[in-house]
Specification:
Helix content is 24%, strand content 44%. By secondary structure, the chain is α+β, with helices and mostly antiparallel strands.
Protein backbone atom coordinates (compact mmCIF):
# COMPACT_ATOMS: atom_id res chain seq x y z
CA UNK A 1 0.00 0.00 0.00
CA UNK A 2 2.84 2.40 0.86
CA UNK A 3 4.52 1.67 -2.46
CA UNK A 4 1.27 2.39 -4.29
CA UNK A 5 0.97 5.76 -2.52
CA UNK A 6 4.58 6.60 -3.37
CA UNK A 7 3.98 5.73 -7.02
CA UNK A 8 0.89 7.91 -7.14
CA UNK A 9 2.78 10.82 -5.55
CA UNK A 10 5.72 10.44 -7.94
CA UNK A 11 3.40 10.21 -10.95
CA UNK A 12 1.52 13.32 -9.84
CA UNK A 13 4.79 15.19 -9.41
CA UNK A 14 5.99 14.16 -12.85
CA UNK A 15 2.72 15.24 -14.47
CA UNK A 16 2.88 18.58 -12.65
CA UNK A 17 6.46 19.07 -13.78
CA UNK A 18 5.49 18.28 -17.37
CA UNK A 19 2.58 20.73 -17.24
CA UNK A 20 4.80 23.40 -15.72
CA UNK A 21 7.43 22.77 -18.38
CA UNK A 22 4.81 23.03 -21.13
CA UNK A 23 3.50 26.31 -19.70
CA UNK A 24 7.01 27.73 -19.61
CA UNK A 25 7.59 26.67 -23.22
CA UNK A 26 4.33 28.32 -24.34
CA UNK A 27 5.20 31.51 -22.44
CA UNK A 28 8.68 31.50 -23.95
CA UNK A 29 7.21 31.09 -27.46
CA UNK A 30 4.79 33.98 -26.87
CA UNK A 31 7.59 36.24 -25.62
CA UNK A 32 9.72 35.29 -28.62
CA UNK A 33 6.84 36.11 -31.01
CA UNK A 34 6.39 39.53 -29.40
CA UNK A 35 10.14 40.21 -29.58
CA UNK A 36 10.25 39.24 -33.26
CA UNK A 37 7.29 41.47 -34.15
CA UNK A 38 8.69 44.50 -32.30
CA UNK A 39 12.18 43.97 -33.71
CA UNK A 40 10.76 43.79 -37.24
CA UNK A 41 8.77 46.99 -36.68
CA UNK A 42 11.80 48.79 -35.27
CA UNK A 43 13.88 47.78 -38.29
CA UNK A 44 11.50 49.42 -40.74
CA UNK A 45 12.81 52.84 -41.71
CA UNK A 46 10.56 55.26 -43.57
CA UNK A 47 12.90 57.57 -45.47
CA UNK A 48 11.99 61.15 -46.16
CA UNK A 49 11.61 62.24 -49.77
CA UNK A 50 14.98 63.37 -51.11
CA UNK A 51 16.27 64.62 -54.43
CA UNK A 52 17.87 61.96 -56.67
CA UNK A 53 21.69 61.79 -56.78
CA UNK A 54 23.56 63.97 -59.23
CA UNK A 55 24.88 60.98 -61.20
CA UNK A 56 21.28 59.96 -62.00
CA UNK A 57 20.27 63.48 -63.01
CA UNK A 58 23.28 63.72 -65.33
CA UNK A 59 22.11 60.64 -67.26
CA UNK A 60 18.65 62.08 -67.98
CA UNK A 61 18.03 63.52 -71.43
CA UNK A 62 16.73 67.12 -71.23
CA UNK A 63 13.12 67.37 -72.33
CA UNK A 64 12.59 63.59 -72.26
CA UNK A 65 9.36 64.02 -70.32
CA UNK A 66 10.50 61.71 -67.49
CA UNK A 67 9.17 62.99 -64.16
CA UNK A 68 11.68 62.45 -61.34
CA UNK A 69 10.54 62.87 -57.68
CA UNK A 70 12.25 65.86 -56.10
CA UNK A 71 13.19 67.42 -59.48
CA UNK A 72 12.03 71.01 -59.76
CA UNK A 73 9.83 71.39 -62.83
CA UNK A 74 9.23 75.14 -62.71
CA UNK A 75 12.04 75.97 -65.13
CA UNK A 76 13.60 78.47 -62.72
CA UNK A 77 17.05 77.83 -64.23
CA UNK A 78 16.32 80.33 -67.04
CA UNK A 79 18.53 83.29 -67.66
CA UNK A 80 16.99 86.52 -66.40
CA UNK A 81 16.13 89.26 -68.90
CA UNK A 82 14.32 92.60 -69.22
CA UNK A 83 11.00 92.93 -71.04
CA UNK A 84 8.82 95.92 -71.93
CA UNK A 85 5.63 95.76 -74.05
CA UNK A 86 2.60 98.01 -74.52
CA UNK A 87 -0.77 96.70 -75.65
CA UNK A 88 0.75 93.59 -77.20
CA UNK A 89 -1.73 90.94 -78.38
CA UNK A 90 -1.78 88.18 -75.79
CA UNK A 91 -1.22 85.34 -78.26
CA UNK A 92 1.77 87.09 -79.87
CA UNK A 93 3.17 88.03 -76.45
CA UNK A 94 3.28 84.45 -75.15
CA UNK A 95 4.75 83.01 -78.35
CA UNK A 96 7.47 85.69 -78.46
CA UNK A 97 8.32 85.14 -74.80
CA UNK A 98 10.05 81.79 -75.51
CA UNK A 99 11.29 82.46 -79.05
CA UNK A 100 15.03 82.23 -78.27
CA UNK A 101 14.79 79.61 -75.50
CA UNK A 102 14.46 75.83 -75.37
CA UNK A 103 11.03 76.14 -73.72
CA UNK A 104 7.89 75.08 -75.58
CA UNK A 105 4.76 77.23 -75.60
CA UNK A 106 1.21 76.26 -76.67
CA UNK A 107 -1.53 78.93 -76.68
CA UNK A 108 -5.22 78.04 -76.76
CA UNK A 109 -7.11 79.54 -79.75
CA UNK A 110 -9.55 81.30 -77.41
CA UNK A 111 -6.81 83.36 -75.76
CA UNK A 112 -7.42 87.03 -76.67
CA UNK A 113 -6.68 90.43 -75.19
CA UNK A 114 -3.74 92.82 -74.81
CA UNK A 115 -0.84 92.88 -72.35
CA UNK A 116 1.23 95.85 -71.16
CA UNK A 117 4.14 95.46 -68.75
CA UNK A 118 7.69 96.63 -68.02
CA UNK A 119 9.83 94.15 -66.04
CA UNK A 120 13.52 93.99 -65.19
CA UNK A 121 15.67 90.92 -64.46
CA UNK A 122 12.91 88.31 -64.63
CA UNK A 123 12.64 84.75 -65.95
CA UNK A 124 9.99 83.18 -68.16
CA UNK A 125 8.41 81.44 -65.15
CA UNK A 126 8.14 84.73 -63.26
CA UNK A 127 6.55 86.50 -66.24
CA UNK A 128 3.99 83.71 -66.63
CA UNK A 129 2.98 83.93 -62.97
CA UNK A 130 2.68 87.72 -63.13
CA UNK A 131 0.46 87.68 -66.22
CA UNK A 132 -1.76 85.08 -64.57
CA UNK A 133 -2.08 87.17 -61.43
CA UNK A 134 -2.72 90.49 -63.21
CA UNK A 135 -4.55 89.54 -66.43
CA UNK A 136 -6.06 86.20 -65.40
CA UNK A 137 -4.49 84.08 -68.15
CA UNK A 138 -4.35 80.52 -66.84
CA UNK A 139 -1.52 78.17 -67.77
CA UNK A 140 -0.37 74.64 -67.13
CA UNK A 141 3.29 73.78 -66.71
CA UNK A 142 4.97 70.48 -67.52
CA UNK A 143 8.54 69.29 -67.96
CA UNK A 144 8.85 70.78 -71.47
CA UNK A 145 7.04 74.09 -71.34
CA UNK A 146 3.70 75.85 -70.89
CA UNK A 147 0.12 75.59 -72.10
CA UNK A 148 -1.77 78.92 -71.97
CA UNK A 149 -5.53 78.71 -71.45
CA UNK A 150 -8.25 81.37 -71.49
CA UNK A 151 -9.78 82.61 -68.24
CA UNK A 152 -13.03 80.64 -68.17
CA UNK A 153 -14.90 78.39 -65.78
CA UNK A 154 -13.14 75.07 -65.28
CA UNK A 155 -13.70 71.92 -63.24
CA UNK A 156 -11.08 70.47 -60.96
CA UNK A 157 -10.99 67.45 -58.64
CA UNK A 158 -9.26 67.81 -55.26
CA UNK A 159 -8.41 64.80 -53.05
CA UNK A 160 -9.20 65.27 -49.35
CA UNK A 161 -7.75 62.72 -46.95
CA UNK A 162 -10.00 62.74 -43.91
CA UNK A 163 -12.19 60.25 -42.10
CA UNK A 164 -15.86 60.10 -43.01
CA UNK A 165 -16.96 60.39 -39.38
CA UNK A 166 -18.85 62.84 -37.26
CA UNK A 167 -17.88 63.12 -33.59
CA UNK A 168 -19.49 65.00 -30.73
CA UNK A 169 -18.13 65.12 -27.21
CA UNK A 170 -19.04 66.75 -23.94
CA UNK A 171 -17.04 67.23 -20.77
CA UNK A 172 -19.08 68.15 -17.71
CA UNK A 173 -17.96 69.06 -14.22
CA UNK A 174 -20.67 69.92 -11.69
CA UNK A 175 -20.75 70.65 -7.98
CA UNK A 176 -24.23 69.95 -6.57
CA UNK A 177 -25.32 71.28 -3.20
CA UNK A 178 -28.72 69.60 -2.85
CA UNK A 179 -32.05 68.91 -4.51
CA UNK A 180 -35.42 70.55 -4.96
CA UNK A 181 -38.26 68.08 -4.91
CA UNK A 182 -41.75 68.37 -6.33
CA UNK A 183 -44.72 66.04 -6.22
CA UNK A 184 -47.88 65.42 -8.18
CA UNK A 185 -50.63 63.45 -6.41
CA UNK A 186 -53.85 62.18 -7.97
CA UNK A 187 -56.53 60.68 -5.71
CA UNK A 188 -58.63 57.75 -6.97
CA UNK A 189 -59.37 54.16 -6.17
CA UNK A 190 -55.88 53.34 -7.36
CA UNK A 191 -53.38 55.72 -5.81
CA UNK A 192 -50.63 57.01 -8.10
CA UNK A 193 -47.85 59.13 -6.68
CA UNK A 194 -45.14 60.77 -8.76
CA UNK A 195 -42.29 62.99 -7.77
CA UNK A 196 -39.43 64.77 -9.43
CA UNK A 197 -36.18 66.21 -8.19
CA UNK A 198 -33.70 68.67 -9.64
CA UNK A 199 -30.15 69.18 -8.47
CA UNK A 200 -29.04 72.59 -7.27
CA UNK A 201 -25.76 73.39 -9.03
CA UNK A 202 -23.51 75.61 -7.00
CA UNK A 203 -20.80 75.46 -9.68
CA UNK A 204 -20.55 73.80 -13.07
CA UNK A 205 -18.58 73.93 -16.29
CA UNK A 206 -19.54 72.21 -19.53
CA UNK A 207 -17.21 71.86 -22.52
CA UNK A 208 -18.64 70.61 -25.80
CA UNK A 209 -16.85 69.77 -29.02
CA UNK A 210 -18.33 68.89 -32.42
CA UNK A 211 -16.14 67.57 -35.23
CA UNK A 212 -17.97 67.25 -38.55
CA UNK A 213 -15.47 68.37 -41.17
CA UNK A 214 -17.40 67.17 -44.21
CA UNK A 215 -20.59 68.97 -43.22
CA UNK A 216 -18.76 72.28 -42.96
CA UNK A 217 -16.50 71.79 -45.99
CA UNK A 218 -19.07 72.47 -48.70
CA UNK A 219 -20.32 75.67 -47.05
CA UNK A 220 -16.74 76.91 -46.75
CA UNK A 221 -15.92 76.21 -50.41
CA UNK A 222 -19.13 77.89 -51.60
CA UNK A 223 -18.18 81.01 -49.66
CA UNK A 224 -14.76 80.99 -51.40
CA UNK A 225 -15.97 80.68 -55.01
CA UNK A 226 -19.29 82.48 -54.57
CA UNK A 227 -22.61 81.55 -56.12
CA UNK A 228 -22.11 83.04 -59.58
CA UNK A 229 -23.38 81.48 -62.78
CA UNK A 230 -21.83 78.11 -63.60
CA UNK A 231 -20.09 77.68 -60.24
CA UNK A 232 -20.73 74.54 -58.20
CA UNK A 233 -19.25 72.36 -55.45
CA UNK A 234 -19.71 68.59 -55.12
CA UNK A 235 -18.38 66.84 -52.00
CA UNK A 236 -18.02 63.04 -52.10
CA UNK A 237 -17.12 62.14 -48.53
CA UNK A 238 -17.05 58.39 -49.22
CA UNK A 239 -14.44 58.73 -51.98
CA UNK A 240 -12.61 61.58 -50.25
CA UNK A 241 -12.96 63.87 -53.27
CA UNK A 242 -14.15 67.42 -53.84
CA UNK A 243 -15.19 68.57 -57.33
CA UNK A 244 -15.23 72.34 -57.81
CA UNK A 245 -16.34 74.22 -60.91
CA UNK A 246 -15.17 77.84 -60.87
CA UNK A 247 -12.81 80.37 -62.42
CA UNK A 248 -9.06 79.54 -62.41
CA UNK A 249 -8.24 82.10 -59.73
CA UNK A 250 -11.02 80.77 -57.52
CA UNK A 251 -9.77 77.23 -58.03
CA UNK A 252 -6.34 78.29 -56.82
CA UNK A 253 -7.94 79.77 -53.69
CA UNK A 254 -9.77 76.48 -53.10
CA UNK A 255 -6.55 74.52 -53.56
CA UNK A 256 -4.70 76.78 -51.13
CA UNK A 257 -7.47 76.39 -48.53
CA UNK A 258 -7.59 72.59 -48.82
CA UNK A 259 -3.81 72.30 -48.50
CA UNK A 260 -3.76 74.42 -45.34
CA UNK A 261 -6.84 72.70 -43.91
CA UNK A 262 -5.39 69.22 -44.35
CA UNK A 263 -2.07 70.33 -42.92
CA UNK A 264 -3.79 71.65 -39.79
CA UNK A 265 -6.26 68.79 -39.40
CA UNK A 266 -3.65 66.05 -39.75
CA UNK A 267 -1.21 67.37 -37.17
CA UNK A 268 -0.79 64.63 -34.63
CA UNK A 269 0.25 64.54 -31.00
CA UNK A 270 1.13 61.74 -28.59
CA UNK A 271 -0.18 62.38 -25.08
CA UNK A 272 1.69 60.67 -22.26
CA UNK A 273 0.20 60.79 -18.78
CA UNK A 274 1.09 59.61 -15.30
CA UNK A 275 -1.54 59.49 -12.57
CA UNK A 276 0.36 59.44 -9.29
CA UNK A 277 -0.83 59.13 -5.69
CA UNK A 278 1.62 60.51 -3.12
CA UNK A 279 1.10 59.40 0.51
CA UNK A 280 2.53 62.48 2.19
CA UNK A 281 5.10 62.26 4.95
CA UNK A 282 4.41 63.88 8.32
CA UNK A 283 6.46 66.92 7.27
CA UNK A 284 4.32 67.57 4.18
CA UNK A 285 0.75 67.10 5.43
CA UNK A 286 -0.21 70.48 3.96
CA UNK A 287 0.65 69.29 0.45
CA UNK A 288 3.61 68.81 -1.86
CA UNK A 289 6.23 71.53 -1.56
CA UNK A 290 6.85 72.30 -5.23
CA UNK A 291 9.26 75.12 -4.40
CA UNK A 292 11.55 72.61 -2.68
CA UNK A 293 11.31 70.25 -5.65
CA UNK A 294 12.18 73.04 -8.10
CA UNK A 295 15.55 73.54 -6.38
CA UNK A 296 16.83 70.52 -8.32
CA UNK A 297 19.39 71.47 -10.97
CA UNK A 298 17.62 69.51 -13.73
CA UNK A 299 14.13 70.84 -13.09
CA UNK A 300 12.39 74.18 -13.55
CA UNK A 301 8.82 75.24 -12.83
CA UNK A 302 6.92 77.99 -14.62
CA UNK A 303 3.43 79.24 -15.34
CA UNK A 304 1.73 76.92 -17.84
CA UNK A 305 -0.21 79.83 -19.33
CA UNK A 306 2.80 82.01 -20.17
CA UNK A 307 5.34 79.45 -21.29
CA UNK A 308 7.75 80.99 -23.78
CA UNK A 309 10.73 79.83 -25.74
CA UNK A 310 11.51 76.70 -27.70
CA UNK A 311 11.83 73.11 -26.56
CA UNK A 312 12.12 72.82 -22.80
CA UNK A 313 12.90 76.50 -22.18
CA UNK A 314 10.42 78.03 -19.75
CA UNK A 315 9.88 81.56 -18.54
CA UNK A 316 8.56 83.09 -15.33
CA UNK A 317 6.00 85.89 -15.07
CA UNK A 318 8.66 88.51 -15.85
CA UNK A 319 9.76 86.61 -18.98
CA UNK A 320 13.11 85.48 -17.52
CA UNK A 321 14.21 82.01 -18.68
CA UNK A 322 14.02 79.24 -16.09
CA UNK A 323 16.61 77.01 -17.76
CA UNK A 324 20.06 78.13 -18.86
CA UNK A 325 21.97 76.90 -21.90
CA UNK A 326 23.35 73.96 -19.91
CA UNK A 327 19.87 72.83 -18.92
CA UNK A 328 20.11 73.88 -15.26
CA UNK A 329 17.33 75.68 -13.43
CA UNK A 330 17.79 79.42 -12.96
CA UNK A 331 16.56 80.38 -9.50
CA UNK A 332 14.99 83.78 -9.00
CA UNK A 333 12.34 85.41 -6.87
CA UNK A 334 9.80 84.86 -9.62
CA UNK A 335 10.34 81.09 -9.43
CA UNK A 336 8.33 80.79 -6.22
CA UNK A 337 4.91 79.26 -6.66
CA UNK A 338 3.41 82.24 -4.89
CA UNK A 339 4.18 84.27 -8.01
CA UNK A 340 2.33 81.82 -10.27
CA UNK A 341 -1.39 82.67 -10.55
CA UNK A 342 -2.58 79.04 -10.35
CA UNK A 343 -0.19 77.09 -8.18
CA UNK A 344 -1.96 73.77 -8.70
CA UNK A 345 -1.46 73.98 -12.48
CA UNK A 346 1.92 74.73 -14.00
CA UNK A 347 4.51 73.55 -16.51
CA UNK A 348 7.75 71.76 -15.77
CA UNK A 349 10.95 71.85 -17.79
CA UNK A 350 13.42 69.02 -17.21
CA UNK A 351 16.77 68.05 -18.68
CA UNK A 352 15.44 64.48 -18.79
CA UNK A 353 13.06 63.31 -21.50
CA UNK A 354 10.99 61.12 -19.15
CA UNK A 355 8.90 61.45 -16.01
CA UNK A 356 11.47 59.53 -13.97
CA UNK A 357 13.32 62.55 -12.55
CA UNK A 358 10.11 64.23 -11.40
CA UNK A 359 8.78 61.02 -9.83
CA UNK A 360 12.08 60.56 -8.00
CA UNK A 361 11.83 64.06 -6.55
CA UNK A 362 8.22 63.46 -5.49
CA UNK A 363 9.33 60.37 -3.58
CA UNK A 364 11.29 62.64 -1.21
CA UNK A 365 7.98 63.94 0.17
CA UNK A 366 6.08 60.68 0.50
CA UNK A 367 5.44 57.22 -0.85
CA UNK A 368 4.72 57.42 -4.58
CA UNK A 369 2.21 55.08 -6.23
CA UNK A 370 1.74 55.22 -10.00
CA UNK A 371 -1.97 54.49 -10.44
CA UNK A 372 -1.99 54.57 -14.22
CA UNK A 373 0.27 55.38 -17.17
CA UNK A 374 -2.07 55.99 -20.11
CA UNK A 375 -0.74 56.94 -23.52
CA UNK A 376 -2.87 57.93 -26.47
CA UNK A 377 -2.36 59.54 -29.87
CA UNK A 378 -4.85 61.91 -31.47
CA UNK A 379 -5.01 64.47 -34.25
CA UNK A 380 -5.68 68.18 -34.07
CA UNK A 381 -8.85 69.24 -32.21
CA UNK A 382 -10.04 65.66 -31.74
CA UNK A 383 -11.05 64.56 -28.26
CA UNK A 384 -9.23 61.57 -26.76
CA UNK A 385 -10.73 59.72 -23.78
CA UNK A 386 -8.96 57.17 -21.60
CA UNK A 387 -11.04 55.18 -19.13
CA UNK A 388 -9.68 52.53 -16.78
CA UNK A 389 -11.99 51.10 -14.13
CA UNK A 390 -15.30 49.35 -13.54
CA UNK A 391 -19.00 50.25 -13.69
CA UNK A 392 -21.21 49.10 -10.84
CA UNK A 393 -24.97 49.53 -10.54
CA UNK A 394 -26.48 51.07 -7.42
CA UNK A 395 -30.00 52.01 -6.36
CA UNK A 396 -30.55 55.74 -6.88
CA UNK A 397 -34.33 56.03 -6.57
CA UNK A 398 -37.02 54.10 -4.72
CA UNK A 399 -40.75 54.49 -5.24
CA UNK A 400 -43.84 52.45 -4.46
CA UNK A 401 -47.01 51.65 -6.33
CA UNK A 402 -50.10 50.94 -4.20
CA UNK A 403 -52.81 48.88 -5.87
CA UNK A 404 -56.21 48.34 -4.25
CA UNK A 405 -57.89 44.99 -4.82
CA UNK A 406 -60.78 43.07 -3.26
CA UNK A 407 -58.40 41.29 -0.94
CA UNK A 408 -56.61 44.48 0.16
CA UNK A 409 -53.90 46.89 -0.85
CA UNK A 410 -50.73 45.64 -2.50
CA UNK A 411 -47.52 47.68 -2.33
CA UNK A 412 -45.00 47.09 -5.09
CA UNK A 413 -41.57 48.72 -4.73
CA UNK A 414 -39.92 50.14 -7.86
CA UNK A 415 -36.16 50.59 -7.92
CA UNK A 416 -34.08 52.69 -10.30
CA UNK A 417 -30.52 51.48 -10.90
CA UNK A 418 -27.76 53.80 -12.12
CA UNK A 419 -24.20 52.82 -13.10
CA UNK A 420 -21.38 54.42 -11.12
CA UNK A 421 -17.86 54.45 -12.52
CA UNK A 422 -14.97 53.64 -10.23
CA UNK A 423 -11.50 54.24 -11.64
CA UNK A 424 -9.54 56.77 -13.68
CA UNK A 425 -10.89 58.76 -16.63
CA UNK A 426 -8.87 61.27 -18.63
CA UNK A 427 -10.41 63.53 -21.25
CA UNK A 428 -7.96 65.52 -23.40
CA UNK A 429 -8.48 67.70 -26.49
CA UNK A 430 -5.35 69.19 -28.15
CA UNK A 431 -4.91 72.13 -30.49
CA UNK A 432 -1.53 72.03 -32.24
CA UNK A 433 -0.03 75.13 -33.81
CA UNK A 434 2.36 75.21 -36.75
CA UNK A 435 5.20 76.14 -34.39
CA UNK A 436 4.62 73.05 -32.22
CA UNK A 437 2.82 74.75 -29.33
CA UNK A 438 -0.05 72.72 -27.88
CA UNK A 439 -3.16 74.07 -26.15
CA UNK A 440 -4.84 71.34 -24.11
CA UNK A 441 -8.25 71.01 -22.58
CA UNK A 442 -7.68 68.56 -19.72
CA UNK A 443 -10.40 66.94 -17.62
CA UNK A 444 -9.03 64.21 -15.33
CA UNK A 445 -11.36 62.40 -12.95
CA UNK A 446 -10.49 59.82 -10.30
CA UNK A 447 -13.49 58.27 -8.58
CA UNK A 448 -13.89 55.64 -5.88
CA UNK A 449 -17.29 54.06 -5.20
CA UNK A 450 -18.04 52.05 -2.06
CA UNK A 451 -21.15 50.20 -0.94
CA UNK A 452 -23.28 51.88 1.68
CA UNK A 453 -26.28 50.01 3.06
CA UNK A 454 -29.37 52.07 3.80
CA UNK A 455 -32.53 50.82 5.52
CA UNK A 456 -35.74 52.11 3.90
CA UNK A 457 -39.30 51.41 5.10
CA UNK A 458 -42.03 51.33 2.45
CA UNK A 459 -45.61 50.28 3.11
CA UNK A 460 -44.72 48.76 6.43
CA UNK A 461 -41.93 46.68 4.91
CA UNK A 462 -38.25 47.23 5.54
CA UNK A 463 -35.76 47.16 2.69
CA UNK A 464 -31.97 47.16 2.95
CA UNK A 465 -30.63 48.88 -0.16
CA UNK A 466 -27.02 49.03 -1.42
CA UNK A 467 -26.42 52.71 -2.12
CA UNK A 468 -23.31 54.30 -3.59
CA UNK A 469 -20.82 56.34 -1.61
CA UNK A 470 -18.80 58.08 -4.31
CA UNK A 471 -15.55 59.96 -3.74
CA UNK A 472 -14.47 62.03 -6.74
CA UNK A 473 -11.37 64.09 -7.40
CA UNK A 474 -11.41 65.94 -10.70
CA UNK A 475 -10.41 69.17 -12.39
CA UNK A 476 -11.20 70.93 -15.65
CA UNK A 477 -8.70 73.34 -17.17
CA UNK A 478 -7.19 74.69 -20.39
CA UNK A 479 -3.39 75.01 -20.54
CA UNK A 480 -0.70 75.84 -23.06
CA UNK A 481 2.62 74.03 -23.29
CA UNK A 482 5.52 73.61 -25.64
CA UNK A 483 6.27 70.37 -27.42
CA UNK A 484 7.70 67.93 -24.85
CA UNK A 485 6.96 70.00 -21.74
CA UNK A 486 5.29 68.38 -18.75
CA UNK A 487 2.05 69.88 -17.46
CA UNK A 488 1.48 69.20 -13.76
CA UNK A 489 -1.95 69.16 -12.14
CA UNK A 490 -1.72 68.96 -8.37
CA UNK A 491 -3.58 69.93 -5.24
CA UNK A 492 -6.15 67.09 -5.40
CA UNK A 493 -5.82 65.96 -1.79
CA UNK A 494 -7.65 63.32 0.22
CA UNK A 495 -7.90 62.58 3.94
CA UNK A 496 -7.64 58.92 4.92
CA UNK A 497 -8.74 57.70 8.36
CA UNK A 498 -7.70 54.23 9.50
CA UNK A 499 -7.95 52.23 12.73
CA UNK A 500 -4.63 51.22 14.26
CA UNK A 501 -4.36 48.54 16.92
CA UNK A 502 -1.30 48.04 19.13
CA UNK A 503 -0.67 45.76 22.02
CA UNK A 504 1.73 43.62 24.01
CA UNK A 505 2.94 40.77 21.78
CA UNK A 506 1.62 37.38 22.81
CA UNK A 507 -0.67 38.68 25.53
CA UNK A 508 -2.91 40.97 23.46
CA UNK A 509 -4.01 38.02 21.29
CA UNK A 510 -5.44 36.05 24.23
CA UNK A 511 -9.28 36.05 24.08
CA UNK A 512 -11.02 38.30 26.61
CA UNK A 513 -7.87 38.96 28.63
CA UNK A 514 -5.95 40.41 25.69
CA UNK A 515 -8.34 43.35 25.35
CA UNK A 516 -6.79 44.86 28.48
CA UNK A 517 -3.38 44.90 26.78
CA UNK A 518 -4.52 46.49 23.49
CA UNK A 519 -4.49 50.11 22.41
CA UNK A 520 -6.75 51.39 19.64
CA UNK A 521 -6.62 54.74 17.91
CA UNK A 522 -7.68 56.44 14.70
CA UNK A 523 -4.84 57.55 12.46
CA UNK A 524 -5.29 60.36 9.95
CA UNK A 525 -3.06 60.80 6.94
CA UNK A 526 -3.21 62.74 3.70
CA UNK A 527 -2.47 61.86 0.14
CA UNK A 528 -2.21 64.12 -2.89
CA UNK A 529 -3.08 63.18 -6.43
CA UNK A 530 -0.66 64.47 -9.08
CA UNK A 531 -1.31 64.20 -12.80
CA UNK A 532 1.61 64.60 -15.19
CA UNK A 533 0.80 65.16 -18.86
CA UNK A 534 3.33 65.57 -21.67
CA UNK A 535 2.34 66.32 -25.29
CA UNK A 536 4.75 65.21 -28.02
CA UNK A 537 4.03 66.57 -31.49
CA UNK A 538 4.57 64.01 -34.24
CA UNK A 539 6.42 65.88 -36.97
CA UNK A 540 8.83 63.27 -38.25
CA UNK A 541 8.82 59.52 -38.83
CA UNK A 542 11.59 59.23 -36.26
CA UNK A 543 9.10 59.95 -33.48
CA UNK A 544 7.25 56.71 -34.19
CA UNK A 545 10.56 54.87 -34.58
CA UNK A 546 11.63 56.06 -31.14
CA UNK A 547 8.37 54.88 -29.59
CA UNK A 548 8.67 51.47 -31.25
CA UNK A 549 12.19 51.17 -29.84
CA UNK A 550 10.94 52.16 -26.38
CA UNK A 551 8.29 49.41 -26.62
CA UNK A 552 11.00 46.91 -27.57
CA UNK A 553 13.07 47.93 -24.53
CA UNK A 554 10.09 47.68 -22.17
CA UNK A 555 9.13 44.21 -23.41
CA UNK A 556 12.73 43.01 -23.09
CA UNK A 557 12.89 44.32 -19.53
CA UNK A 558 9.57 42.62 -18.73
CA UNK A 559 10.84 39.34 -20.19
CA UNK A 560 14.05 39.61 -18.18
CA UNK A 561 12.10 40.12 -14.96
CA UNK A 562 9.80 37.19 -15.81
CA UNK A 563 12.73 34.86 -16.45
CA UNK A 564 14.34 35.87 -13.16
CA UNK A 565 11.05 35.17 -11.36
CA UNK A 566 10.88 31.68 -12.85
Amino acid sequence: MIKQHLCVIMLTGLLGACASSQNREVAQQNRQSIDDALTEAAAVVIPDAESPPDEILDQLVPGSGIAVPGLEQDLEFETAFDISVSKAPARLFFMSLVRETNINMVVHPSVVGEISLDLKNVTVAEVMRLTREVYGYEFKQNDTGYIVLPARIQSKIFPVNYLNVSRAGESLMTVSSGQIEGSNDQGSDNSNNSSSSNSLKSSSIATTSVADFWAELRATLVSIIGDGQGRSVVVDRHAGLVIVRAMPGELRDVENYLENAQDNLQRQVILEAKVIEVDLNDSFQSGIDWAAISSSRDLAIGNAGVVRGVGRVLADEAGAPLLDAAGNAVLSSNLELGNIPYANLFAVGSSSSTFASLITLLSTQGNVHVLSSPRVSTVNNQKAVIKVGTDEFFVTEVSSDNTSTASGTTTTPELTLTPFFSGIALDVTPQISKEGEVILHIHPSISEVDDQLKVVTLGGETFELPLALSTVRESDSVVKAQNGQVVVIGGLMKNITSDEVGGLPGVSDVPFVGEAFKQKRKANRRSELVILLRPIVVDKNRVWSNYIQESVDRVKQLNANTVEGE
